[in-house]
Amino acid sequence: MKDFTAAMKALSDQNRVKIIKMLQHKSMCVCEIKAALNLPQPSVSKHLKILEKAGLVSSQKDGLWVNYHLSDGSRTPYAATLLGNLRHWLDDDPEIAGLVEKISFLNRKDLCK
Amino acid sequence: MKDFTAAMKALSDQNRVKIIKMLQHKSMCVCEIKAALNLPQPSVSKHLKILEKAGLVSSQKDGLWVNYHLSDGSRTPYAATLLGNLRHWLDDDPEIAGLVEKISFLNRKDLCK
DNA sequence: GCACTATATTCCTTAAAAAGAATATATAAG
DNA sequence: CTTATATATTCTTTTTAAGGAATATAGTGC
Predict the structure, then answer these.
(1) Which of A21, B14, B83, B100 has the fewest CB atoms below 10 angstroms from its CB?
(2) Cβ contacts of residue A91 below 8 Å, gap of 6+?
(3) Could you tell me the pLDDT band of residue A107, with boundaries at 50, 70 and 90?
(4) Taking CB atoms and an 8 Å limit, are B85 and A81 in contact across chains?
């Protein structure tokens, strides 16, 4: 039950949903997400931690960067199914569509000074 | 987006999830839910309102009682899909299983004095 | 070693949700 | 019309989550 409600709570925040939708297109480091959402870096880290605990995203260190990507869903069946549903959901949401367009132009080398 | 996060938030509370799982077995009035969950009546009404706004449950007046039942999902696709998923999810959760057993013995006539 | 950068964590403040008590509405029965 | 019952609503308090600033950790390059 806790696994289920944790997944639901993780996805009840718009910024976290946006992160999931962006990660569907490419894995991103914290500073890319920060740039895309215009949020302070600590906020992004905290949102990512909540998503990670819910089994929705995973991370991989690459030197100084930490790349976040969608989880394979092996942690909980809820996360797996929700990630599946979110593949098509919200694609035509204007805010989401705008973000997806935006991140295609983002370049990590320009973001991280 | 708001529809989606509202549905998620509605299901991020354990009591509300319990209500959904009980309503899978029979439609219930407020005082039955109150008895099953051992919650004060205003809390139950408020939880039900949140579930209703999220498109997860609907209500029907029957004299003095208000019967709540699972929504048909026509309000939002998110509610419809989540209700579908929840059909099998959490069935083996001990707390849920206990509740389902409990409500089979509940009788409205004994509850509402 | 030192300086620099990306990310994480902590602490504090603010906003939002839940719990609780009291009251209001509405329907039924006498 | 009064009483009683089921549910809803309001208001207040408490808890929980989010935002923000500052700091800590951990790599990288010199």
Answers:
(1) B14
(2) A21, A97
(3) confident
(4) yes
* B20's tokens: 């959904």
On whether any CB of chain B is under 8 Å from the CB of A12, the answer is yes
CATH no. of B2-104: 1.10.10.10
Q: By the CB < 8 Å criterion, does A15 face chain B?
A: no
Contact state of A93 with B1 under an 8 Å Cβ cutoff: yes
Q: What is the per-residue pLDDT across B79-110, written as a single tens digit (0 to 9) for each?
A: 999 999 999 999 999 999 999 999 998 877 77
Using CA atoms of B44, B45, B47, B48 in order, give the dihedral in degrees to the nearest 10.
110
In CATH, A2-105 is 3.90.220.20: no
How many Å from the N-terminal Cα to the C-terminal Cα in chain A?
Answer: 43
Q: How many residues are recorded in chain B?
A: 113
Domains of chain A: which residue ranges?
A: 2-105
Strand D contacted by B50 CB (< 7 A):
no
* Torsion over CA: A47, A50, A54, A55 (sign): positive
pLDDT in tens, B23-56: 999 999 999 999 999 999 999 999 999 999 999 9
